[in-house]
Specification:
By secondary structure, this protein is α/β, with parallel strands linked by helices. The protein is about 45% helix and about 15% strand. NADPH dihydro-nicotinamide-adenine-dinucleotide phosphate binds next to helix 10.
Length: about 280
């Protein structure tokens, strides 16, 4: 039976460390880390994410600035708001909750955020820095996953790693971080010819697709570390991942649950990145 990787507990430790470091920064420089969160429209899931981020800021002793725009807001209005936040010294991190309404070009909005305040690490400058292995911010979900893997005490070096999913937010940066730690990485997607075989060869398997029970026990190597990023609803409306947890936990050595695995780490890394942005600003 697999050991459970407790993301909730590990994230709580990261957040406590960030809180103490933020207090130290405030005492030393007077700077309080500030995170601006922009929400366009009233998507219920996005509202929950934004509230969780606000709560995490309060717990870490950060300032949080919420900007709610109607779904009808124009791209120009949104970019004008980002410009003003870029210029505001009390704001160290800017996060625009995705997805945006269809009439707004997501890429143009991401590009408008100053790379020094891009705590999601989505801006092309930060993506490029991650690619070359010299970065200030790590993308929140993949960085959180690396901490979960580290918590097992097993080194990534030399391991066969399979990442299922190639999004800019999760799959691609995940592959890069595993590569930086000397994993031998395969990235799978919807056109992969034999997904089961690619997964079965993995010592470390990361599933980031968004399809419940896509990863079944026959696709998992005995003793593998299995990280489940997916957030789906099952037929009872309950939150579940991409991995058939009940069957796969019998085969894996370590596994993350959904909920309580990767999700809490994403917010913890966002807090860490906002603190890093404030620290960098304090040195200017
Ligand atoms: P995307 O929809 O952007 O990407 C999904 C990826 O899965 C694509 O690369 C797609 O391939 C691939 N895919 C789809 N079907 C298959 C298949 N049958 N076999 C293999 N690959 C397939 O999703 P995200 O990366 O944004 O998110 C993935 C999941 O992770 C979602 O459930 C999301 O909610 C969750 N998530 C959770 C977070 C957390 O904090 N817990 C944070 C971010 C995401 P192709 O490129 O060919 O289309």
């Amino acid at each position: 039976m697999a050991n459970l990787i407790n993301g909730k507990e590990i994230a709580a430790n990261v957040r406590e460390k960030v809180r103490l470091e933020a207090l130290e920064l405030k005492n030393r420089t007077g700077i309080i880390p500030g995170l601006a969160v922009i929400l366009v429209g009233d998507d219920p899931a996005s509202k929950i994410y934004v509230n969780n981020k606000k709560k995490a800021c309060a717990e870490a002793g950060f300032n949080s600035f919420e900007h709610l725009l109607p779904a009808s807001a124009s791209q120009d209005e949104l970019i004008a708001l980002i410009d003003s936040l870029n210029a505001d010294p009390s704001v160290h991190g800017i996060l625009c909750q995705l997805p945006l309404p269809g009439h707004i070009d997501e890429r143009a909005v991401i590009n408008a955020i100053s790379p020094e305040k891009d705590v999601d690490a989505f801006h092309p400058v930060n993506v490029g820095k991650i690619m070359i292995g010299s970065y200030d911010f790590l993308p929140c979900t993949p960085a959180g996953i690396m901490e979960l893997i580290h918590s097992t005490g097993i080194s990534v070096s030399g391991k066969k790693c399979t990442v299922v999913g190639r999004s800019n937010i999760v799959g691609k940066p995940m592959a890069m971080l595993l590569l930086h730690e000397n994993g031998t990485v395969t990235v799978c997607h919807s056109k992969t010819a034999d997904l089961a075989a690619e997964c079965r060869s993995a010592d470390i398997l990361v599933a980031a697709v968004g399809k419940a029970k896509l990863i079944t026990a026959d696709m998992v190597k005995e003793g593998a570390i299995v990280i489940d990023v997916g957030t789906n609803r099952n037929s009872d409306g309950k939150l579940c991942g991409d991995v058939d947890f009940a069957e796969v936990e019998k085969k894996a050595s370590y596994i993350t649950p959904v909920p309580g695995g990767v999700g809490p780490m994403t917010i913890a890394t966002l807090m860490r990145n906002t603190l890093t942005a404030a620290e960098l600003a304090s040195k200017k």
